[in-house]
Design brief:
The complex is a heterodimer of chains A (340) and B (228). Chain A has 340 residues and is α/β, with parallel strands linked by helices. In chain A, 36% of the residues lie in helices and 30% in strands. In chain A, the strands form three sheets. Chain A has a six-stranded mixed β-sheet with strand order 6-7-8-3-9-10, sandwiched between helices. The radius of gyration of chain B is 21 Å and the shape is globular. Classes of the chains: A alpha/beta (340), B mainly alpha (228). The A-B interface holds A 52-54, 78-82, 84-86, 88-98, 105-106, 108-110, 137, 139-140, 150, 153-154, 156-157 and B 121, 123-124, 126-134, 137, 141-142, 145-146, 148, 219-223. The complex binds adenosine-5'-triphosphate (ATP) and magnesium ion.
Chain lengths: 340, 228
Amino acid sequence: MITVENLTKTFTQSNTSVAALDDVSLEVPDGSVCGVVGTSGAGKSTLARCIALLEKPDTGAIRVDGTDLVSLEGSKLRAARRRIGVVPQGDSLLRQRTAAGNVALPLESAKVPAAQRRSRVAELLDLVGLSDKASVYPDHLSGGQRQRVAVARALAAKPSVLLADEPTSALDPATTDSVLTVLERARSELGVTVLVVTHDMAVVRRIADDVAVLEQGRVVEHGKVLDLVSEPGSRIGSTLLPETDQASVLRPDSGQQHDVVAEVVLVGFAAVGALLPEASSRFGVELSILGGGLTRLGDTPVAKFRVGLSGERSESALKWMIERDAHVRRAPVSVDGVAA
Amino acid sequence: MSDVTPWSEVLELVRPATVETIYMVLMSTLVGVVGGLPLGVWLHMTSPVGLTPKPLLHRVLGAIVDVTRSIPFVVLLVVVGSLTRLLMGQAFGSSAAIVPLAIAAVPFFARLTSNALREVDSAIVEAAVTTGASKFRIVWTVLLSEARAALVGAVGVTMLALIGYAAMAGAIAGGGLGATAILDGYNAYDDRVLYVSVVLLGVLAWGMQLLTDWVTKLVDRRRAVTNV
Ligand SMILES: Nc1ncnc2c1ncn2[C@@H]1O[C@H](COP(=O)(O)OP(=O)(O)OP(=O)(O)O)[C@@H](O)[C@H]1O
Ligand SMILES: [Mg+2]
C-alpha cells in the first residue's frame, strides 16, 4: 500500500517559486492500480519522484506498507528504494548492457547471488515477453521493448510497489497495449501495487482501479474509476466516458420529436446489455439512441448514451432505470423537442 | 652536411629511441589513468550535476586540475627537473622524463574523465539510484561503464598528447625519438635521422589512434551510426 500524506514540495528558481505539490494526500490500496493524470506541469512527475525517494518533499509523509520513508538516509534509504520499483519517464536503460544485464541491475544492488540472479532475470524477461531478447542491447530494441525491459528491471528485486511515469508516452496504441499488459500482469501475478502517471485516458480506462487528478500541485479529484464515471459532477468521470455530443451530430433521426431526452450512464455487463431494451418494452416507450457509445474500464463495460424517449410512460421508464442503478441526467429539451 | 648516414646506423639510433618513447608514453599514460580516473570521478561526483554535490570542494578540485593543466609543459619540465633529481637521483634519461609527463597526464585525464561522466544521461543514473545501488556501485557499473567509449577515447587523446610532450621532455631530459630528432638529427645536421625520427613519431601517434579507435569499437555496445 502506498500512502501519501499532506505532501508539499516547492521549487525555487531565480526568485520565483513553484508549488509543484501543494498538500497532496493519496492512498493506493494493496494490489490496486492508481492512475495519476493532469496537465503538463501539474506536478505528476514530482509526486512520482517523491514516492520513488528521488526528491525530498518539504513536508508530509510517504508510507509504503506503513513506515514513513521521507526521513530515511544511507543504507536504510537504499533498502527502502529496493521495495519500490520505478519505471522512470523516458529512456533509462543502460546502453552498454544487454536487456538481461539491465534487469539484473537491481539484483546486483541487492547482492543476490549470481545463480539466483540468472533465474530471476529469465523469469522476468518471460513475464514481459522478451525471453528471446535477453542478450540484445537497448539500442537494438524497439521503444516498446525498451519500456518492457524497464518494467522488468523495476520488478526484479520483488518490490511491493511499482511506479511508472508516462510508461506509454511516444508509443503507438498497439505498443502501448503491450506495455499495459505487462503492468497488468505485474499486478495480477505478482500482487504489486501500481501507481502510473499518464496523460493518456486510454491507460486509465485500461488498467486503473483508482484515478487521481492533479492540478497545479493539488489533488482535485480522487476515487474509484467506476464511481467517478457515475458521478454527474466529476470532470474526470465524463472525460473517461464516451462523448455524446460528437455522435449526436450523426444521429439518424434528427428531425424526430422526443418527449424526454436524457443522458444515461450504464455500468456493467447486465446494465449495458439489457437495461435500455427492457425499459423500452416494459413501458411501451419508443427509445432511440441519439449519441454516445460504449467503452471499457478495466474489465467492466461502461456505456454513456444520449437517449430520446417517446411515449406516455417515458418518465416511468426513466425512473425504473434509475432504480436499477443507471445514472440518468436529464438533458434540457429545446422547443422542437430535441435536446439543446 | 657531410656524408649521408647509412641506413643501418640510422636504424641503430632510432630503434632504442622508439622503444624509449613508447615506454615513456605508456608509463605516463598508466600513471595518468590510475591517478586521473579517481580524480576525475571525484570531480564529477562533487559537481552540481553529480551524485554528491559539494560546491566548495568541487571548485577547489577544479582549480587544482585546471591550473596544473594550463602550465605550459616546458615550464613544468624545468620546474619538475629539480624535483625529479630528488626523487630519482637523476634528472636525465627517459625514466626521469616520466615524472613531468605523469604530472601533466593526471589532471589532463581527470578533466577528460569528468567530462565523459557528465555525458552519461541523468535518467540512467537516476534509474540506478532507484534500484538502491550504493554510490560505489553506481560509479562502477553505471558511470564508468556507460562512459566506457568516451573513456577509451580519453586514454587515446592522453596518449597522443603525451607523445608530443615526451618528444619535448626527451629533447631536454634526454631519451626517446624527440631527443634523437633534435640531438642526433637537427644539431648534428643529419637530415636523414631527423626526418626518420619525425616520421616515426607520426607513425607512432597514428598507430595509437588506430588502436584507440579499435578498442573503442570493441567495448561500445551502442548502435553505430551507419549510412551517413
Ligand atoms: N527540479 C526542478 N526545479 C525547478 N522546478 C521544477 C523542478 N522539477 C519540477 N519543477 C516544476 O514543478 C512543476 C511540476 O513539474 P512536474 O515535472 O512534476 O510536472 P508534470 O505534471 O510531470 O508535467 P509533464 O506532464 O509535462 O511531465 C512544474 O512547474 C515544473 O516547472
Ligand atoms: Mg512528468
